[in-house]
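Hey, I was hoping to borrow your eyes for a little while. I've been staring at a protein lately and its backbone has me curious. You're getting the sequence in one-letter code plus the fold written as tokens. Would you mind checking whether the tokens look sensible for this chain? Here's the protein in full, and shout if anything looks odd to you:
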Amino acid sequence: MTDPENAEVAEAAPVFAESGGNWRVVAAGPMLCLVVLIGDFVVGTGVHWVALTMCAVLLAGFVALQVAAARRHASVCLTDTELRCGTEALALAEIAAVLPAADPFARDLLPWETARALGELSGVPKRRTGIGLRLRGGGIVRAWARDGDALRTALEQAVPDGAVDEGDGR
């Protein structure tokens, strides 16, 4: 006999996920300040405790703010029921087809390459690859991920009926 609560948890397990940002980069600034502190101590010119401590705290604070924003606005999660890009979730049942990948050498853009990107950002975030999706209502949107090929493969397998549009996305 299965527990309904565990069934919901198993259903929500991610098929594909990207966090958007990594917390360990917060330590880079304080580590650099530590290296300068050790250099000050070795050279013997006087250790600048207050200035280096303030720099370490400020650097860690600003980078932590950036990582928190990236984890909220540039993360991707695909489950069995929905695709979330940033802060916007799209039910897989609303996706009619995954559009073909764009040719990087083509002179003209495919229609999906200028479509609205999922999430609340104005476009596809930097260093992310856009993926065209045709919706059941006829609209076209762009999903995106750092590993676009892996997300495209996961979407092609997860979309109901495995619909892959062989056209040019028009």
